[in-house]
Amino acid sequence: MTERGSDEPGSSFQEGGEIEQIHASDLALARRIEGGDETAFVALIRRHHAGFMRLATVWVRSPSVAEDVVQETWLVVLERLGEFQGRSALKTWLCGILVNIARSRARRENKLVPFDPLTMAQDLAPETAVPAERFSPPGHRWDGHWQRPPRSWAPSPEAVVVTTETLAIIERCLEELPAQQKAVLLFRDVEDLSAEEVCNALGISSTHQRVLLHRARSRMRALLEPHYDQRKGSSS
Amino acid sequence: MKSLKQTEIVCRDVVEIVHEYLEDALSSSERAGFEQHLHACPWCLTYMDQIRATALSVGKLGEAELPSLALPSAVESSLVAMFRARRKA
Q1: pLDDT (tens digit, 9 = 90+) per residue, B5-26?
Q2: pLDDT given for residue A7 in this prediction
Q3: Which residues of B touch A221 (CB under 8 A)?
Q4: Pick from B13, B69, B79: which is nearest to A53 by CB?
Q5: SS3 for A36?
Q6: CA-to-CA distance for B38 and B24, rounded, in angstroms?
Q7: What is the distance between the alpha carbons of residues A49 and A207, in angstroms, rounded to a whole number?
Q8: What is the complex's ipTM, to 2 decimals?
Q9: Rounded CA separation B28/A144 (Å)
Q10: Which chain B residues are within 8 Å of A1, Cβ to Cβ?
Q11: Which of A12, A71, A137, B46 has the maximal Cβ count within 10 Å?
């Protein structure tokens, strides 16, 4: 999770009775780039390139096409930077542009496009977060309670050590996730967008966003469990 | 996700509604029932910590510098050239 501090609203003003948050530092950055600050522009593209490449591959699988999508995004950003008013975080605004370009590109290539109406029902078939056999079965005295409970990975979630091996497992799991779940997980946990920002960027309801996040994180947890359990076992 | 009509929440329910809890989407009575269960069940607390740890672990991808996702210098140069051309225009 990155740069939350820079996305915090810096001030607010009242218009039509509603308080609107202004992301002052993001607005200042946009104006600097618009004014010709090349160093600020280069820092921006370096900061977001890897995240944008990952996000683009939700819609276009090929890395070279993803590269095209990211480059086109920066072109559009430069053309439209004057429209950015700081009413969202700059990163949210950039992500919205990227999603639109990636989606158009996928449509042009006649791909099934995640979050289009035809694919919206995908990923919503019933599934459980944890296999049923880990709980006591119906009829048992402890029906629904853990039979094989989870083990602690660390004294706190923040204390969990993420190694290169952990990241490789996460990357593999991301590739196996259905596209919509992957998009929501990347936006929420890597790009650190809020639930509302994700709904706006992807054009989905808050319930759909939550279901996708739940399924993605549950699958990811299940894949990380043996890895962290084994490490905990070998260190104790 | 399961709609909770029963008053007593069991561990099997917790793993299905944990994100409704974390995203503040439960009604006040469901939230109270969920928290009551957590107070009494260290295993479900551990499960919720695992979910939080999962989110934090995935977030570390944003800090990792992977060569396969690095900005190629040729691409950076072309973007900078585009930036300069726009300034002149």
Answers
A1: 445 899 999 999 999 999 999 9
A2: 39
A3: 50-51, 54
A4: B69
A5: coil
A6: 16
A7: 30
A8: 0.87
A9: 23
A10: 56, 59, 62
A11: A71
**Residue corresponding to tokens 């069940």:** B41
Q: Do B43 and A149 touch (CB under 8 A)?
A: yes
List, as own/partner pairs, every contact residues A200-203 make where C-beta atoms lie below 8 angstroms and the sequence separation is at least 24, other chains included: A200/A92, A200/A96, A201/A92, A201/A95, A201/A96, A201/A99, A202/A99, A202/A115, A203/A115
CA A185 – CA A182 distance, rounded (Å): 5
Return the structure tokens found at A143.
Answer: 């029906």
pTM above 0.90, yes or no: no
The pLDDT profile of chain A, 236 residues, written as one tens digit per residue, is 333 333 334 444 444 445 556 788 999 999 999 999 999 999 999 999 999 999 999 999 888 999 999 999 999 999 999 999 998 899 999 999 999 999 999 888 866 667 665 565 555 667 899 999 999 999 999 999 999 999 999 999 999 999 999 999 999 999 999 889 999 999 999 999 999 999 999 989 999 999 999 999 999 999 999 999 988 777 65
As beta bridge partners, residue A234 has none
Give contacts of B49 with chain A, Cβ < 8 Å. 152-153, 156-157
Q: Does residue A206 belong to the interface with chain B, where contact is any CB pair within 8 Å?
A: yes
Rounded CA gap, A61 and A106, in Å? 9
Mutant choice from B19, B23, B45, B68 vs A, greatest count of A C-beta within 10 A? B19
Distances (CA, A) of A164 to A152, A218, B60, B61, B77: 21, 21, 10, 10, 30
| Torsional sign, CA A65, A66, A67, A70 | positive
Q: Residue length, chain A? A: 236
Contact state of A145 with B61 under an 8 Å Cβ cutoff: no
> In this structure, what DSSP letter does residue A158 have?
G
